Amino acid sequence: MKKTKQTLKTFIWIIIAAGGLTLLAASGLLDKADLSLSDLWYQSRSASDGKIVIVGIDQRALEELGPYNQWGRDVIAKAIKALNESPDCRPAVIAVDILYAGETDPEKDEMLALAAGEYGNVVSACLGSFGSMLVEDGLGEYRLDSFSMTAFEEPFPLLKAGTTQGHINAMLDQDGILRHHMLELTLPDGTKVPSMALAAAQMYREARGEEAVALPPVDARGFWYVPFCGTPGDFYESISVADLLSGKMGADYFAGKIVLIGPYAVGLQDSYITSADHARAMYGVEYQANAVQALLWEDYKLEADRTLQLVLLFFLLFLGCLLFLRLPIRISLPLLGVSLAGYLLVTRLLYKAGWVCHVLWIPAGLTVLYVGCIVVHYLRAAMEKRRITGTFKRYVAPEIVNEILKEGTETLELGGRLTQIAVLFVDVRGFTPMSELLKPTQVVEILNRYLSLISNCILKNRGTLDKFVGDAAMAFWGAPLPQEDYVMHAVQAARDMAEGSRALSKELMEAYGRTVSFGIGVHVGEAVVGNIGSPQRMDYTAIGDTVNTAARLEANAPGGTIYISRAVADALEGRIRTTSLGDTIKLKGKKEGFEVLILDEILDA
């Protein structure tokens, strides 16, 4: 029952620990660290297929053509014309990552619109603005929508008429990192506007006579996870708008490709920190290039359901905590290492298969639980050490206590086990008559000297001092831990007591004119050893016929004599010298024929 309660209590604590860490993950407090680690783990560079070329409005173009805010729309018109100059080697797509909303200079606006619309291969930019606003739910009720389109900017009418539109919204996650791409904008009238990347990819497939791009899976707001194949600078080949206008770049270089034209200078403020690289900003046109490449490859990743991952997290944390508590550190530490490495490997394989899982939750949770379990193991060990030491230090030799602390024990629970032991009983002969003639303080002093001698002899010979009963004592060998040569240890203790009592008796004779001696009995056999009693009061002792027989031997032994049984003599055959009394000594409760022997000498001591 006690073990059942303890097991139930352990399970409850494991559930609390696993549940608490699961709730911590569910709260979102780990999301920022988890997202950063996921970016580092999942996003990796890979070579593009060379179908995408970036033409940058870079620092060189600004130096040669002047500040960007002074450019007319004719600059990009000329760039588009230069790209489409040769009928045999035009780009499949020209996507201009610049918003041309509203009319400015009619002549230059017309130049841009005519250049962009002449060959039907240009994608122009539009932009939606989002914020919170009240929306009707269709039942006459209004609710606050935190992600509602508040404004929409599109190309001026002439440019819109001659081009395909694609939105250039780049929306950061809550931690300020760009990881996702909005596939489409839905206008208030229900019209869907694809992203510039999607429009460019579809136009490219159409130009090549291929099937349309399969759309990626999106979340509730229409975003999909972008697997970046390039870091900042990977798509850029240092082709400047100035190179097109000066004729340095031949049109054949761009034949059949997707050309992205956009800002590529710090001062133009079109850059973002992306999941591909947290240290360096990526220009918006590079972000578009990564999205286009992912769409062309149809390399889509679906972020695994959060609730499902939380359920898995709880299960693995529960299992891990259970194992960490039950297994020794030499096994649990490698298990933790294998678990962490295995989980990371599984997440990488799942990513390749199209699933994005939280990287931090499970490793962090298992590590925290492991550290917690180490603390629990330490506290348990400290408590067990204190418990063992408190139980045995007064009764057992220090080296045996140390062995118990090393090995651990279950013998401290209420109950016992049958084991082979050697039992010694010793009694002080002649003490009662002498005590009647002495003062109480003298009696106590003499008794303490004798009992100290008994205790020292037992502990010196690695015995367990069971109890003192008046001027008698009981000890045993072979428990609480198995001992080598435990029978010899027992008779050596008996011999040491007999020898020590002679010196003490001489002192008493000189001081008080009287003396005492020991009667000792030793027997070996099976006995039940353990904590006997109740949970409130228990004693670590031995019970059984072996104990009773040793007590009978001692009761019949004259002062200064050590009685042993035939079982002891057989166990130490050739190592001790004895005198057999046959069955002349009648022990209470023993049948006829029980042989009693006197221990005369230990031969190999």
Descriptive account of the structure:
The chain is 43% helix and 24% strand. The protein is of the alpha/beta class and 605 residues long. The strands form 6 sheets. Strands 15, 16, 17, 18, 19, 20, 21 and 22 form an 8-stranded mixed β-sheet that branches. Strands 1, 2, 3, 4, 5 and 10 form a 6-stranded mixed β-sheet that branches. Strands 6-9 form a two-stranded antiparallel sheet. The radius of gyration is 46 Å and the shape is rod-shaped.
Q: How large, in whole angstroms, is the Cα Rg? A: 46 Å
Q: Mean pLDDT across all residues, rounded? A: 87
Low-confidence segments, given as residue ranges, are: none
Strand content: 15-25%
Query: What structural category arises from helix and sheet content?
Result: alpha/beta
Could you name the key traits of this structure?
alpha/beta, rod-shaped, six-stranded mixed β-sheet, 605 residues
Task: Give me the secondary-structure topology.
Elements: H1 2-27, H2 31-42, E1 52-58, H3 59-65, H4 74-83, E2 93-96, H5 106-117, E3 122-136, E4 142-153, H6 157-162, E5 164-167, E6 180-182, E7 184-186, E8 192-194, H7 196-207, E9 223-225, H8 241-246, E10 258-264, E11 271-274, E12 277-283, H9 284-297, E13 302-303, H10 306-326, H11 329-352, E14 355-356, H12 361-392, H13 398-407, E15 415-429, H14 431-435, H15 440-460, E16 464-469, E17 472-477, H16 486-512, E18 517-533, E19 538-543, H17 545-556, E20 561-565, H18 566-571, E21 576-580, E22 596-602
Helix pairs in contact: 1-10, 4-5, 7-9, 10-12, 11-12, 15-16
